[in-house]
# Entry
Amino acid sequence: MANTCAGCNALENPDLPRVTLLSGQEVTTWCECWRAECADRDIDVQRVLALPDREARQTYLAAYGQDRGPAALERLKQAILHTHALRKRQREEAEAAAAGASAA
Ligand SMILES: [Zn+2]
# Structure
């Protein structure tokens, strides 16, 4: 990843929220480089959640950690937990709505 903020100059705006990329570079949540890192991570999240079982997920994550390092692995794990919780809540809300509809 480039060392510059892709020329977007968002860092010059003090009102934008700051984040730190895996490279250690500070950017804002409006920066293209942050969007790109999140998009890459989401692809990995989808890959892991599509794996058939826990053992396959552990194997994938171990290889990922070897390849990308502990900081990247920790962020991927957090993103997986977040996505997993989001899907669970969406499923529960859909079930509650379905139950409410049949009770009415
Ligand atoms: Zn930027």
User: Anything to note?
Assistant: Strands lie at 18-20, 26-28. The CA atoms of residues 65 and 74 lie 8 Å apart. The mean pLDDT is 91. The chain has one domain: 10-96.
